[in-house]
Every structure is written in C-alpha cells, then in structure tokens.
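An instance as discussed:

___
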Amino acid sequence: MKTNEMINLLASFEKRLAAISDQAAEARAHAQHTIDRINKLRQDIEQLKHRVIATADTSDHAPLQDTSAHDEANSPRRKTT
C-alpha cells in the first residue's frame, strides 16, 4: 500500500471514529436527561407521599405509615441472591 493510500485510509477511519464519538456523546446526553427526569419524578413522588401522610385524616382509619424504608429494603432491584 502506498503512503498516500495509507494516509487517506487513516483519515477516513479518523472521520468515522469522530462520527461514532459524536453519536455516543449525544446518546449519553439523552440518557442523562432521562435519568435526571426520572430522579426528579421520584423526588416529587416522595414529597407527595410525605405530604399525604402528614395531612391524612386518620380519625376513622388506622394511621398511615411511611413505608419507604420497608419498600426500599424489599425492592427487587435491591435484592441480591
């Protein structure tokens, strides 16, 4: 293979790698955005749960209890076998 052919081939590989790198960075940015949205929704749910527990009318019912520690301990994603 001639030197010019090798240089052209390497330049082509460099361009392809740059394109792949750009695509990966974009995918990572989208994934991080999705993770951030999920985490914000989880925080909102936790805050709402605490407000509901704090303001619940429990006069005719057993008091509501915060079960987040129990739920987290028994979560399928937390279990290790």
Summary: The longest helix spans residues 3-55. The mean pLDDT is 85. The two ends are 56 Å apart (CA to CA). The helical segments are 3-55, 68-73.
